[in-house]
Amino acid sequence: MYRTREFELVTVAANAPDERPGVVKFLEKQHATSRNLLFASTDTSALHAAFQAKWESVLPYTLLIAPDGRVLYRREGAVDLLELRRMILANLQTDYTGFREYWVTH
Length: 106
Prior knowledge:
By secondary structure, the protein is an alpha+beta fold. The chain has helices at residues 20-29, 44-51, 81-90, 99-105; strands at 10-13, 35-38, 61-65, 71-76. The mean pLDDT is 80.
């Protein structure tokens, strides 16, 4: 859905570094094609600081970050995919007349 657009999906696994084989196995099972990172430390306070000081450690934790660093969407726990897609499309530059308006309003 986003491959031809100016959008990059990056996932970050909050697992400990020694759990890398399990993370890779999960991503392969999901056929993940996006950029996938593994937090390279067991220091969970550093993980919190890297993403959001207000984060309560609930997983999954989803952030949609604009190129200028603004957080456009934040969710702890389950994600409302329709809400997230609308937010992504509302903030993409697109040449498809009416396409963005359709997703934002439906």
